[in-house]
């Protein structure tokens, strides 16, 4: 089921950069929507379930029978692990902390997996070591750490417990970035894998809710929540379809830089929709983060190794 060893990564071009930008903005837009649902009274797990299920069903309905994939043990495992690391764990945690620290700061958590993803990829021989890329990613992560550091001009120390919980988001995403590329099923399309990951994530969240006795929270009788979930499901279908195209066309490290788009976009949406405000420390971190993006993506003549294309 793994065709990693036979193909090389493509050098990301303008198309990949625009796809990265578009997917990052779509994912960032999900955060203020989730905060709106939490403010009405929806629980994070219920929201994560309906988001994953809705997105998966929309994509499956769009593809219909023309792109079905035969399910076997290896694919079931791939969908389960992908759904756990990219959907169930990070989304449930992000939706839980967004009402405590705001959409903007929650978005910064998505920028942290980049350096960890690159380190794992280099260690596994999936990418070559590049000092320029490592320095650039380091700048980006440093910018996020700066943003997350308690400061009179930054965030409140009262938010630290929620931020520490939120750090599980980038850890889960980094593991998932590597796994999905290194175990990409032979012959599978990005659309097929996006459906499997979303529905796999929904199943795992539902199982967790059964264990916790929270299934009753899935019942929704508020028209406002259904409207929010409808928009969220459409964004999820669009975002994760593009997400898997990025996974297929580029490297895990390039994909991990989605967080460098989600962070400033999420902060902007937090300002626009909720009037969130940030001190000089936060904006200084954003500048450092964007500097890292530029450094990490300067043209390189180094050879790439392998790909999941």
From TrEMBL:
Domain EamA: from-to ranges: 17-148, 161-297
Chain segments annotated as coiled-coil in the UniProt record: none
Keywords carried by this UniProt record: Membrane, Transmembrane, Transmembrane helix
One family name in Pfam for this protein: EamA
Record field: transmembrane: 12-33, 45-63, 75-95, 101-122, 134-155, 161-181, 193-213, 225-243, 255-274, 280-298
Keyword Repeat: no
Subcellular compartments: Membrane
Highest taxon listed in the record's lineage: Bacteria
Main localisation: membrane
Membrane-topology descriptor: Multi-pass membrane protein
Recorded family membership: Belongs to the EamA transporter family.
Protein name in UniProt: DMT family transporter
Organism: Marinobacter azerbaijanicus
């Amino acid at each position: 089921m793994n065709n990693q060893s036979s193909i090389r990564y493509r050098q990301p071009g303008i198309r990949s950069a625009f796809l990265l930008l578009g997917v990052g903005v779509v994912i960032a837009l999900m955060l203020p929507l989730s905060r709106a649902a939490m403010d009405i009274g929806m629980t994070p797990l219920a929201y994560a379930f309906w988001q994953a299920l809705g997105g998966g069903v929309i994509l499956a309905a769009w593809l219909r029978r023309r792109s079905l994939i035969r399910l076997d043990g290896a694919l079931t495992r791939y969908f389960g692990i992908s759904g756990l690391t990219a959907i169930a764990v990070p989304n449930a945690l992000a939706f839980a902390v967004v009402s405590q620290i705001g959409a903007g700061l929650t978005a910064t958590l998505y920028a942290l997996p980049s350096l960890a993803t690159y380190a794992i990829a280099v260690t596994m021989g999936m990418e070559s070591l590049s000092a320029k890329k490592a320095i650039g990613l380091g700048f980006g992560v440093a910018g996020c750490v700066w943003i997350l550091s308690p400061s009179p001009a930054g965030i409140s120390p009262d938010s630290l417990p929620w931020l520490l919980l939120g750090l599980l988001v980038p850890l889960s995403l980094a593991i998932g970035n590597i796994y999905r590329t290194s175990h990409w099923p032979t012959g599978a399309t990005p659309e097929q894998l996006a459906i499997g990951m979303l529905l796999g994530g929904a199943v795992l969240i539902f199982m967790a809710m059964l264990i916790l006795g929270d299934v009753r929270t899935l019942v929704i009788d508020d028209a406002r929540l259904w409207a929010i979930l409808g928009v969220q499901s459409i964004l999820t279908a669009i975002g994760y379809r593009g997400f898997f195209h990025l996974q297929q066309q580029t490297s895990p490290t390039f994909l991990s830089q989605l967080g460098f788009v989600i962070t400033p976009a999420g902060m902007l949406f937090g300002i626009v929709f909720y009037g969130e405000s940030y001190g000089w420390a936060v904006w200084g971190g954003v500048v450092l983060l964007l500097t890292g993006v530029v450094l990490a993506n300067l043209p390189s003549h180094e050879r790439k190794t392998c790909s999941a294309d």
